Amino acid sequence: MTSEAAGVTRRHEFVLFFDVQNGNPNGDPDAGNLPRLDPETNQGLVSDVALKRKIRNYVALARPDAPGHEIYMRDGATLNTEHRRAWTAVMPEAKPEDQKKLPKEAKARELTRWMCANFWDIRAFGAVMTTGVNAGQVRGPVQLAFARSVEPVLPLEIAITRLAATTEADAEAKGGRTMGRKHIVPYGLYRAHGFVSAPLASHPVKGTGFSDDDLALLFEALGQMFDHDRSAARGEMATRKLVIFRHATALGNAPAHALFDRVRTLRVHKGEAHEIGADATDNWPPARSFSDYRITVDREGLPAGVEVIEP
């Protein structure tokens, strides 16, 4: 482990709000890249994998040459090559055929510790590193749930035209013009929940060494990741609010769901604010900006040992 990676010793939960305007926050490849939806409620969905991808990309940009901040799951990576690096560092005498099975317990822990020490996303999210060259598996202390829009969204399919033909035959048959489709959400405010387990960060055997510095970088990434993930497909996306619950102990001082219930989202229109779905909002126009919402955090009667942080 790196010397700074003592491991987080207090449990954390967080609520992340982000929005999208005229973009596709997370297309579904099984549905023609339509924005992901809950078919029963029409609420938009963004997968945990998509959020982790943006976090990884931010860390790679923010700490490109910092020791211990390599990214394991990255574009173009060959995972077994990274596993061999661990074997070379821990057991340089091992032959290729020996690397298919984990060695005895002590050496196996050294392999996974080497991977945790060098790759930030393994320390955070864990990894299954048994793909031929076996470097073990690690359960990560940081977990995210699917993000869900606070209200139903109505994806639009927009027709687009391309003037440049792909082939000469297309140019002759279609005059160079081809039609396409682009899927967008006009506006959606999404809410995601996250969890940081102190035991999985700091346990002497099972812990990944996810440190307080790593935690600070995670929260930094959640706040800025969309600023470095621009594309025509995603429109305008931005983190709007991050609410962190910090416990005084490793096991925590209150259930996560009870803390999440303290974070409420209200609809706002012409100075009025009501719960989403309230009868008073029936004739209101659809939300088209973050100013159409108000996020509140109930700090009254917080359980002892729980601190609320709003960066």
UniProtKB/TrEMBL annotation:
GO biological process, one term: maintenance of CRISPR repeat elements
Pfam families documented for this protein: Cas_Cas7
Top-level lineage group: Bacteria
InterPro entries: Cas7_Csh2/Csh2, CRISPR-assoc_prot_Cas7/Csd2
Name of the protein: Type I-C CRISPR-associated protein Cas7/Csd2
UniProt source species: Methylobacterium terricola
